[in-house]
Amino acid sequence: MLEVHRIFKTYEGKPLLNDISFQVGTGETVCLLGASGSGKSTLLRIIAGLEDTDSGFISFNSIDLTSMPAHLRDFGLVFQDYALFPHLNVKENVAFGLKMRRLSKAEIARRVTNSLGMVNLSGFGTRRVTDLSGGEQQRVALARALATRPRLLMFDEPLGALDRTLSEDLLNELRSILHQSKIPAIYVTHDQEEAFTIADRLLILHEGEIVRQGTPAEIWANPESAFVAGFLGLGTIIDGTYIGNSQVETRFGKLTVHCEHKPQMGDHIHLLARPLSAESERNIVHGTVTDVIFQQERFKVTLDNGLYAYLPKAPNMGQKIQVRIKVECLE
C-alpha cells in the first residue's frame, strides 16, 4: 500500500501543496483531478522521487521512501509525451528498462512479448516508434512501464495528446489492464470524463489542497461544496439566504431545500440546481429560452436567468417556459 503523509511544498515562497495525505490500496486506481496549477503533477513527481518535499513523507508497505532515489522505488511512470527513444524500435523501447536491470535475454524477450500482448501490439516489435500513431506510441509507453512489473503505476495526463476517439478507446483498455494486473495506480488528469471513467477513487485538488475525495458515484451524488459542484459542471450554483422551514430566498424567489448541515436563520448558503428531469420537484422556475442544444435524445435548454434543464422536446427560442429543478444544499 502506498501512503502519502502530510506533504507540504512551496514554490517561490507560495504554498503549492498544503497538508496532502492519502493512501492507494492494492489494485486500486486513484485519480488526482484538478485544474492547471492545482498541484497534482507536482504531487505525482514527489511520489515518483523526482522532486523533494518541504515536509511530510511517502511510504510503501510501511517503508519510508523519502531518501530513496527514483530508480529504486520500482514505480512505473507514463507521460503525456510518451518519452520514447526514437532511434529504437518498439521491442527495444519496451526492453530498455529490463536491460538496465540486467535480466537475461530470455526473460527480457518473454516480458516484452507479454507486455506488447497486453496493450494489443503483438507483431509490432520491429516497427519504428516514429512510424506509429499517437495512440500506438502511448501503448508502447504503457507496455514499457508494465514490462518492469512495477509495484505502482503513475500516469501524468497520458491521453492529453490524443484526439477524443483515440483517448476513449485507450482509456477503456487501460482500465481493463489495471483491473486485470491488480497493479495500484495514480492517474493525474484535468479531464473530468477521464477521471470518472478510470478512477476507483477520486481526489479533487484545488490550490494545493484535497477539497473532496470519494468514489465517482459518491462525489457525483454529493459534491459537498460550491467549488466542487461548479468545477464538475453539475448544475447552476445559486446564492441564497436561509429564512427557515427549509426555505431559501434567492434571485429566483423562494426555493425549498433540505440542508443536512442545519443552517441558522439569515445564514448565506450555496445551492446547486441540477439540470435533471425532476417532475416531482416542488421548485418551479420561469424563464425565457435563450439556447437549445440537442444532446443524446434530449435537449439542453438554457434560460435567460442562467439556469438550464434537459427536456424531451425542444421549445422555441425566445419562448417563455417553466421548468422544475432539483435543488440541493451545499456546505
Short description:
26% of the residues lie in helices and 34% in strands. The chain is an alpha+beta fold and 331 residues long. A hairpin with a 4-residue loop joins strand 16 (299-303) and strand 17 (308-311).
The profile of the biggest β sheet is:
6 strands, mixed
- Tally of DSSP β-strands: 19
- How do the strands of the widest beta sheet line up side by side? 6-7-8-3-9-10
Helix coverage percent: 25-40%
List the helices and strands and how they pair.
Elements: E1 2-11, E2 14-24, E3 29-33, H1 40-48, E4 55-60, E5 63-64, E6 75-78, H2 90-100, H3 105-118, H4 134-147, E7 152-156, H5 164-181, E8 185-189, H6 192-198, E9 201-206, E10 209-214, H7 216-221, H8 226-231, E11 236-244, E12 247-250, E13 253-256, E14 268-274, E15 284-294, E16 299-303, E17 308-311, E18 320-324, E19 326-330
Parallel strand pairs: 3-8, 3-9, 6-7, 7-8
Antiparallel strand pairs: 1-2, 1-4, 4-5, 9-10, 11-12, 11-14, 12-13, 14-19, 15-16, 15-18, 16-17
Give an account of the 3D structure:
- Helix 2 (90-100) crosses helix 3 (105-118) and helix 2 runs parallel beside helix 4 (134-147).
- Strands 6-7-8-3-9-10 form a six-stranded mixed beta sheet, with helices on both faces. A five-stranded antiparallel beta sheet has the order 13-12-11-14-19.
- It has 331 residues and is α+β, with helices and mostly antiparallel strands.
- It has helices at residues 40-48, 90-100, 105-118, 134-147, 164-181, 192-198, 216-221, 226-231, and strands spanning 2-11, 14-24, 29-33, 55-60, 63-64, 75-78, 152-156, 185-189, 201-206, 209-214, 236-244, 247-250, 253-256, 268-274, 284-294, 299-303, 308-311, 320-324, 326-330.
- 35% of the residues are buried.
- The chain folds into two domains: 2-221, Rossmann fold (3-Layer(aba) Sandwich); 226-330, no CATH class.
- The protein has eight helices and 19 strands.
- It starts with a strand and ends with a strand.
- The chain is globular, with a radius of gyration of 24 Å.
